[in-house]
Design a protein that fits this description.
Elements (H helix, E strand, L loop, with lengths): L22 H16 L12 E6 L5 H12 L3 E6 L11 H8 L5 E5 L3 H10 L4 E3 L7 H15 L6 E5 L4 H13 L2 E5 L8 H14 L3 E4 L10 E4 L12 H7 L6 H7 L4 E4 L11 H4 L6 H20 L2
């Protein structure tokens, strides 16, 4: 552990999105994640005595398990608070909630419906807040995604990632981290389902320093020549059920073997999971040799462990 240099920008820092983290710091975080993956026993007591509270308004498999297991592997204690039936701010104000938590815990991991709730919580608490998913961003997922790309392609800078589907929180974080790392990201969406215009402009401005290109289009032909194709569910959690109208809009954007062949013979397939097989992606793609979806899921653990380590270690 002594050989791992601290990342000052992450020390006690809120991670509500990734725009304030530098390319070098993200790559250093990935280096720590790889070290933890290769020799987990060396980090067994790195966060001994630390406490983390996990506030979840939305259900989860990967996020909950990886944060709880990751904290335990580092010697920290995680407390899970189920807010699926009672949103933050209903029983007491978010401000009062944050002021209480800062007296007890070292970090707050929150999976919420509204980014504004995270911002209010972070503003009220001296304990750093980690966005474990909101309506606008999913930074922990994108860290695992680009760690996976680095593992499979050696480096991230210069790669081309095509995101196909709804311009949602996952899409936003992929564009943001791609802009930081120098990865060209093309968001391919149905008309009217593009990523948020203001966030897109922010990512494009962020990309100037790294030389990345952040593009948005409705044209499926734009998938050609990409190193990876990424998709997500057509209807995000909490936004209702998939309807006939949804399927009519999104079916042309399904990631199937034909679309993957247009991307190129060596293109990887990526998905944040859970996947609705037969909707946004076919079984033939999910189960293909090109699919790295379970590598992404595994890397949620290692990326988040590295994040907690650099946020909370003395």
């Amino acid at each position: 552990m002594s050989a791992i240099a601290p990342i000052p920008s992450l020390r006690r820092s809120d991670i509500l999105r990734l725009s304030h983290v530098s390319r070098d710091d993200v790559l250093a975080l990935f280096s720590t994640a790889r070290a933890m993956k290769q020799a987990p026993a060396e980090f067994a007591n790195a966060l001994k005595g630390r406490s983390i509270v996990m506030l979840f308004e939305k259900p989860s498999l990967r996020t909950r398990v990886t944060f709880e297991i990751g904290a335990a592997r580092l010697g920290a204690h995680a407390v899970y608070l189920d807010h699926s039936d009672q949103r933050l701010g209903e029983r007491e104000t978010v401000r009062d909630y944050g002021h209480n938590l800062e007296r007890w815990v070292d970090a707050i991991v929150a999976r919420v419906f509204r980014q504004t709730a995270l911002e209010e919580l972070a503003g009220a608490s001296k304990a750093p807040v980690v966005n474990a998913l909101s309506d606008l961003f999913h930074p922990c997922q994108s860290l695992a995604d680009f760690l996976t790309l680095q593992e499979h392609r050696g480096q991230v800078a210069g790669l081309r990632l095509a995101y196909v589907g709804d311009g949602n929180n996952v899409c936003h974080s992929l564009m943001e981290l791609g802009a930081i790392l120098g990865c060209h990201v093309t968001a391919i969406t149905p008309p009217g389902r593009e990523p948020d215009a203001a966030i897109t402009r922010e990512c494009q401005t962020l990309a100037v320093a790294s030389g990345a290109r952040i593009a948005v289009t409705n044209e499926l032909s734009a998938v050609a020549g990409h190193d990876a194709v990424y998709t997500d569910v057509w209807v995000s959690m909490g936004q209702g059920a998939e309807t006939d109208q949804t399927r009519q809009v999104f079916t042309p954007y399904q990631v199937n073997s034909a679309l993957m062949s247009k991307a190129g013979p060596k293109a990887l397939f990526m998905h944040c999971l859970p996947a609705h097989r037969g909707s946004e992606v076919t079984d033939s793609v999910m189960d293909s040799k090109a699919s790295v979806v379970f590598d992404q899921a595994e890397n949620r653990l290692h990326a988040q462990m590295a994040l907690l380590y650099h946020m909370l270690r003395d």
